[in-house]
């Protein structure tokens, strides 16, 4: 790594985290998979190529999207970003940046935080899947009690999906993923709040989806601006 690149990887301390959020429409016909693959390291391309066509497409576009965002922030080419994977999560060694990505069907999110650890999760919401949550065992007793006081119907079911995205976001921020039981993370059953030491906030995504961000520093949901990352774009 060059000295110039190393200097750009040093994150300046901030009193509050600066979070960059980008959303990708994975169904957009303008994506060039060959260009996306060129952004990736050899090991990343190999991992993408092991997936069936839809999985390969998602892996290429999400990893390329993360590299493009980081390249813009650090003023280096996407394929020059010294990104590595540690225990399944993206890491930029020595940078002080918190990184997280998530994808569900046609929507993906990339989160980069200066001065904080973050996790992000997006899920396609389906009423029938949310209705099965109690039987699946990933809601804790306190969460089930809070959900029970909500009026039956779409709002309660959407709140269930919100709980899931918050749990996933926390588990990603911890670096454990679903290797730890989701029931261990007790969510507030609200758009914002805390889950242990993690602050939670909603992320704006297209209709039919729900997304949440977890952070180890206080969050103001009003500060979470999400910008689209489009084919050919880097910001």
UniProtKB/TrEMBL annotation:
GO molecular-function terms, A-Z? holo-[acyl-carrier-protein] synthase activity; magnesium ion binding
Q: Where is the 4'-phosphopantetheinyl transferase domain?
A: 118-184
Q: What are the entry keywords? A: Transferase
Look up the domain of life of the source.
Bacteria
The record's annotation in Gene3D superfamilies points to: 4'-phosphopantetheinyl transferase domain (3.90.470.20)
Keyword Transferase assigned:
yes
* Matching InterPro entries: 4-PPantetheinyl_Trfase_dom (IPR008278), 4-PPantetheinyl_Trfase_dom_sf (IPR037143)
User: What SUPFAM superfamilies is this protein classified in?
Assistant: 4'-phosphopantetheinyl transferase
Q: What is this protein called?
A: 4'-phosphopantetheinyl transferase superfamily protein
Protein source organism:
Geodermatophilus amargosae
């Amino acid at each position: 790594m060059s000295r110039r690149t190393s200097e750009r990887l040093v994150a300046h301390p901030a009193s509050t985290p600066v979070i960059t959020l980008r959303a990708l429409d994975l169904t957009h016909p303008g994506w060039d998979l060959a260009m996306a693959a060129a952004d990736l390291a050899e090991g990343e391309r190999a991992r993408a190529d092991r997936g069936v066509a839809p999985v390969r497409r998602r892996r290429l576009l999400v990893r390329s999207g993360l590299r493009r965002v980081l390249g813009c922030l650090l003023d280096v080419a996407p394929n020059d970003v010294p990104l590595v994977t540690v225990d399944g999560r993206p890491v930029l060694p020595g940078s002080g940046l918190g990184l997280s990505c998530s994808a569900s069907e046609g929507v993906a999110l990339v989160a980069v935080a200066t001065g904080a650890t973050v996790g992000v999760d997006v899920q396609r919401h389906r009423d029938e899947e949310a209705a099965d949550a109690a039987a699946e065992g990933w809601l804790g007793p306190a969460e089930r009690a809070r959900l029970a006081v909500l009026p039956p119907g779409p709002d309660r079911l959407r709140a269930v999906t919100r709980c899931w995205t918050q749990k996933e976001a926390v588990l990603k921020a911890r670096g454990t993923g679903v290797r730890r039981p989701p029931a261990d993370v007790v969510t507030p059953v609200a758009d914002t709040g805390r889950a242990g030491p993690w602050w939670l906030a909603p992320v704006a995504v297209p209709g039919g989806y729900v997304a949440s961000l977890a952070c180890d520093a206080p969050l103001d949901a009003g500060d979470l601006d999400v910008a689209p990352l489009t084919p050919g774009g880097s910001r």
